[in-house]
Amino acid sequence: MRGFDGTTMQFAKIEKQITAVVLVGFAVAIVGMAIRLDRSSAKLSETASLQATIPHPVLGFDRNDYPGDDALPALRRTFSFSSYWLNNPPGAKSNSWLGKRGVLARNDFGYLVLFNGRASAELKSEAAAARLGASDANAAAAGATRDGFPEGTVIFLDQEEGGRMLPAQKAYIYAWLDGVKAAGFRGGIYCSAIAVNDGGEEVMTAENIREHANGRAIVFFVYNDACPPAPGCSYPPNAPRPSASGFAQAEVWQFAQSPRRREYTQRCAATYNADGDCDPPGASGAGASGEALERAAALLAAAERPVIMAGTDLYWSHGEEALAELARTLRIPVFLNGLARGCVAADDELFFSRARSQALKGADVALVVGVPMDFRLGFGASFGDETEIVVVDVAEPERRHPRAV
Predict the structure, then answer these.
(1) Which residues contact 29 (CB under 8 A, 6 or more apart)?
(2) How far is CA 147 from the centre of its chain?
(3) CB pairs under 8 A, 24+ apart, for 214-219?
(4) pLDDT for 126-161, tens place per residue?
(5) Which residues pair with 215 in a beta bridge?
(6) What does the alpha-carbon distance between residue 1 and residue 39 come to, in Å, rounded to a whole number?
């Protein structure tokens, strides 16, 4: 789990990471999709409901690094829950999530609680692995208690390695699950739901763990970003059920990773950014300065031939009402593309679908909302040489704008 991810779940609280992530995890009570927000790698997941009855899956984010307090309000517009790591996430030397449960709660996030497990290279024998599993379970329970998670919270063991589990790996996993249960928590596991060839036999890690669990109650958070069944880097309003991941017992499904894994995502490559990342709305948490806002307002107020060009990120950030109010107040014609089509009624006097090229070229001020300055806008050439361009978006651009904005 390294970045944004997408997850569907139907339980109380969950967690994971995202690069878009897409990016996600939980712990005590919440349903939804998860996304991980880590800049090195990300994943999108969806979950189903454990302790709370939620009518449909919801989106969340999961990330190795805490995104920052200031980013939470923007992220909350898209995501309902967040990951929460109890120890150092995979590949990390520290844990920036510690102590953040309160601020997440104040921003109305649920949680997906994670504990980073051991790699197979650390497990020397079955007996040693079992002892280590019991010890790590105590550490996970102590961490959850320390950070205020009540008994009954689901804690997920992060099992990054896929395929058939070795005897020492199974000894570690089951000892960990038993220890977490003995401490009053519920045991879950994050693992692969992608079937791989192992000695001529198709093996899925989640199924392999379930088959040898000897009746243990396990909450499964699975990853399967292969398209299909995964929808790719997307935030569908009607998220797929976790059972659609290919593992029927899944409570959470991570269906996207960022950057994308090319061997699994050829058929949904178009849903990812050109560089392979999957960045959710508001991922950067950055905001415009007061000076920049004042200059933008002054330009629009003084414009003689203003125009608005709005796109997909307007839709994801639910900004259609604010856009319509601005357009009506300043009497600015509006053009739409991508998922923003329909955000302004087709019969609205300020909505235009034709003469876009002429309008953009002839504008003295253009307000670009949620549209990348890429091929969609001729890398800036769609506007006149003298056009002043104001760019508004919930995410930082992937690269520098091709012209001054």
Answers:
(1) 11, 12, 13, 50, 51, 52, 110
(2) 23
(3) 214/174, 216/174, 216/177, 216/178, 216/187, 217/181, 217/186, 217/187, 218/177, 218/187, 218/188, 218/189, 219/11, 219/50, 219/154, 219/156, 219/186, 219/187, 219/188, 219/189, 219/251, 219/252
(4) 999 999 999 999 999 999 999 999 999 999 999 988
(5) none
(6) 11
Tracing tokens 């198709």 back to the chain, one arrives at: 202
The DSSP 8-state label assigned to residue 352 in this structure reads -
* Three-state secondary-structure class, residue 60: strand
Residues 6 or more apart in contact with residue 185 via CB below 8 angstroms: 140, 141, 144, 149, 151, 152, 153, 154, 155
**Where are the extended beta strands (E) located within 137-282?**
154-158, 186-192, 196-198, 201-203, 219-223, 250-258
Which helix H or strand E contains 249, and what residues bound it? Answer: none
pLDDT confidence bin for 284, thresholds 50/70/90: very low
pTM: 0.62
d(CA 296, CA 217): 56
Identity of the residue numbered 257: Q
Residue 375 three-state SS: helix
Distances (CA, A) of 109 to 53, 62, 100, 105: 16, 12, 11, 5
* Length of the chain measured in residues: 405
